[in-house]
Amino acid sequence: MKDDDRARSCAARGAAPVGLLADLDAAEALAVLCLRLWFDGARGREELAQTFSRGLGQEGAARALYAFADLLEICASYGRRPIMHHKVACRCLGADEACLANFLMSAAEGDREDAMLLATLMVRADAAPMLAEAGCAVGAILRRLALHA
After folding, report:
1. Domain count for the chain
2. Which of 47, 89, 125, 134 has the fewest Cβ atoms within 10 Å of its own Cβ atom?
3. Range of 72's domain?
């Protein structure tokens, strides 16, 4: 198998539907929505900023956006491959989206071992601790937002 074929195959697995957004709790669904909005361009990022601002205020939203950007930068820099996602309005849940949501909630709940294990599915093993730390911050933010939604 050629490298290009292998990359396409991996990407397809990452986007494969594994469930429905409706099956997730509020914080997990918010994690998926944040990912989708981030990659939906300037309009999506503005909507994400507004979502954070409604629940966290201006300063809290700025910190949340920075934390989320940091998490995705770690994924981009050390990722095994790009994180696949569905369109913003899609009701399906992709494999990578499910992994990210599960990772963030494990990290937020202080389940460091599970968070580290899930982090190694997304990034190189040497970057997993860095991603787990970032995941704690982002997961806590998403939990807080979901409680006040």
Report:
1. 1
2. 89
3. 3-147
